[in-house]
Amino acid sequence: MPNRLARETSPYLQQHAGNPVDWYAWGEEALQAARAQDKPILLSIGYSACHWCHVMAHESFEDAEVAALMNRDFINIKVDREERPDLDQIYQLAHQMMSERSGGWPLTMFLTPAQEPFFGGTYFPKAPRYGLPGFAELLQRVAQFYRSERAQIARQGEAIVGGFERMQPANPAHHSEFSSAPVDLALENLAATYDERFGGFGAAPKFPRPTDLELCLRHHATGRAPRGAGGVQDGDGAVDAARQGDPLAMAVFTLGRMAVGGIYDQLGGGFCRYSVDAYWLIPHFEKMLYDNGPLLARYSDAWALTRDPLFAEVVEETAAWTMREMQSPEGGYYSSLDADSEHEEGKFYVWTPEQVRALLSDEEYAVCAPFYGLDQAANFEGGQWHLHVAHGLDEIAQSVGRPVSECGALLVSSRAKLFEARERRIRPGRDEKILTSWNALMIAGMARAARVFGRPEWLASARAALDFIRATLWQEEESSARARLLATCKDGRAHLNAYLDDYAFLLAALIELMQTEYDKRDLAFAEGLAGVLLEQFYDPAAGGFFFTSHDHEKLIHRPKPGYDGATPSGNGAAALALQRLGHITGESRYLDAAERTLQLFYPVLAQHPSGCTSLLLALEEAIEPPRVVVLRGPPEQMRLWRRSLDRAYLPTTVILALAPGVADLPPLLAKPAVSGAVNAWVCHGVTCLPAVDKLELLLDLLNIAEIG
Question: Which long-range contacts (CB under 8 A, 24 or more apart) does 136-139 make?
Fold first, then answer.
């Protein structure tokens, strides 16, 4: 008989609905049961695409004997960290404080009925192994500890809650102290951890870190960084420049290595979560929406700087994967694809040479096998191969004695056959809940890619997702004239108060969309989101934004996140987006809130900028506000101007193209439309230069040199 989780929207929770565990979802029913029965809470946090979450479920939560222990001694609560990032943040931090090491998923925490943690870990096997205790034995020890050591548990709970408060940012700086020194220090730290041989930062496991890559690309484009590499992916000059800490070279080389590695799906497009090795070769095979949206934007940026065709291919294939596999019929984007299929991680993606040879002609195999490394030793468990680009086409063409163009055609036909065969395999599970924050990241990425490459179908995809959010997740409050966002939707049921990230990421996505195609509804929506941000998340006393709204459920901690995780910091994203919206609209409240947020976090940035890249991007634009370029004129003529502007990389310039009939504009945008001609105004703050009526003059004014 299904347990309570059968009623939930989360696919992850529904996966546990058939467990013999008496699971609760987080909520008053569970918390009241813990208080009434004086039982500790066993809190298990995970997500649908998580491999080790599935392992622990199969080993322990599906086991009747383990479930009996859980049901006897605990109130068991299962949480989807993607629906409840507020709980995940709190208890990941608690685990880190108690164990002095980073957490992960599944997160297994034991709490008092007052929600205070007293013990925890991540994955526990059913029987002792990996140096970990068996879960059944652990349950009995924790239950006995709870019964016999209440005073110690209470003291520890108080210490953890006090530690939470001490970790909140305090003692804000004055805006006169702002300088670019934290940005320079962050770039020095990135250069110090840069992997000169394989790209990326740090050792294995390696994550894409698109926000750090954005900082490198922006720093090059603003002219403060050395300009050595020029983006030649495999050239000695680019490699040498990267070794010397050139930000562009580090970013371009990393993006290139990722694109030819196994972290990228060489047949279907899209990136996996991370690489388990330093070489970008073998990934953790789950594919997350929140990685691929920002990476779409970064590869578009890198192409705009370098015109490297590899980057264009990655954008093309990743956008196609997003629309083919991750976009719902209603428009919203799904959350993730599992790492596992048929209970084996990576089974959907890996091959043997015999499988490939059976699908291809001899000519195709002669090119495909060396290109994807099938002529080398197996690189995955069970004597299997995970595809990566092992040799360049030039090298293969010389080896097989064919022209490069002919080898390229054979590779294209090989990929099509392999992809078609792979589509007939049992697919990894797909988490079909639609999360506002992750959709916003993909909307921004698709809009950016559509603008750079002039692809209206990608823009249409982004608009379909935005329309879904506006229709389904932006809801009028009965007690207020203002609408509010909800965080998640599955099978037509939208619920849960939205978080800081939902508002901040969506506001940033709207600003990206307005630059791709101006729609006055987007500006109105952006101002509505900004209004709720200031009313429900902003701290007027100390500055900065809380992760949860003022009317959110009361938890044991209410963080103000400044560090980036897998996604950008909500405070960094909010500060940057509010600054840009403030410059567009002239609304000082937005600019003031962004400035006070940066003041609050500036002491942290000055001492420890690594991990705070999104705040650093906002800091740069606080020091040097972005240019706003306003275009007015007939759509057909304006389109020619836009193509030249859109293909350039202008990270600190906001470009808005307004057709003659657009009305109800804020003062900065309300420029006169001249009949039959395009005019452009370049503005800093409230000051605009005289109108420019020739494209060449505008390109010169913006210092744009056409790359090709």
Answer: 136/60, 136/65, 136/66, 136/69, 139/42, 139/66, 139/69, 139/70, 139/73, 139/74
Strand order, beta sheet including 107-111 = 23-25, 75-80, 41-46, 107-111, 117-121
Can you tell me the distance from the alpha carbon of 559 to that of 546, in angstroms, rounded to the nearest whole number?
Answer: 6
- d(C-alpha 652, C-alpha 617), whole Å: 10
pLDDT given at position 480: 62
Q: In this prediction, what percent of the chain has a pLDDT beyond 70?
A: 96
Segment 353-363, tens digit of pLDDT: 999 999 999 99
C-alpha span between 274 and 287 (Å, rounded)? 9
- The Cα–Cα gap between 452 and 311 comes to 12
> Whats the size of the chain, residue-wise?
708
Strand partners, 44: 78, 108
For the chain, which residues make up each domain, given as ranges?
4-166, 181-321+337-430, 626-708
205 cis-preceded (ω within 30 degrees of 0) = yes
* Cα angle for residues 342, 343, 346 (degrees, 5° grid): 80
Output the pLDDT for position 482: 78
**Overall average pLDDT of the 247-274 stretch:** 98
Q: What are the two backbone dihedrals, phi and then psi, of residue 380, each rounded to the nearest 5 degrees?
A: -130, 160
* Helix 309-321 × helix 247-260 angle, to 10°: 60
Fold of 4-166: Glutaredoxin (3.40.30)
Beta bridge partners of 78: 25, 44
Token pair for residue 622?
């606080």
Q: Categorize the per-residue pLDDT at 241 as very low, low, confident or very high, splitting at 50, 70 and 90.
A: low
Question: 97: burial class by Cβ within 10 Å (0-12, 13-18, 19+)?
Answer: middle
pLDDT, one tens digit per residue, over 190-222 is: 999 999 999 999 999 999 999 999 999 999 988
Global pTM? 0.96
- pLDDT band per the 50, 70, 90 thresholds, residue 230: very low
Candidates 657, 628, 650; CA nearest to 519 is: 657
Q: Is 331 helix (H, G, I), strand (E, B) or coil?
A: coil
Enter the tokens of residue 188. Answer: 């020095």
Beta pairing partners, 288: 336
Residues 6+ away with beta carbon under 8 Å from 609: 182, 183, 185, 186, 189, 616
